[in-house]
Amino acid sequence: MQKLGIKHWQPGLVLAKPVENDNGMILAAQGAELTDKTLSILENRGVTVIYVEGHPVDLPGQHPMALEERLASLDRGFANHDDNDFMMRIKNMFVEAFRKMATEDHQLEEAEKLEVNDDN
What we know:
- With 120 residues, the protein is mainly alpha-helical.
- The chain folds into two domains: 2-52, Molybdopterin biosynthesis moea protein, domain 2 (Alpha-Beta Complex), CATH 3.90.105.10; 67-119.
- The chain has three helices and four strands.
- It has a two-stranded antiparallel ribbon.
- The longest helix has 35 residues, at 85-119.
- The termini are far apart.
């Protein structure tokens, strides 16, 4: 789950918690996929923070989504498209990109560890 301020909202995000107004009235239900219209309504009602599933936005100071979580998110997002070759090619492009990023992140972490050990 990730907490997002208004400037990071985008269509397609899925709410991890319901969004309520000050009186406790639910404006958007948990599990709802956000659309431009929904985002506009929430903004007009004064909502400034939402909680979304996964970790879809890389923000400074927040841990990036683990590879396994990214892949699980892709599986959920493409679940209804198994028989669509084009959509599966797109999914596979994301899988390859995420795996490459994870490898690069791991290599960077290992290099940083070596640098720290060299300094001692």
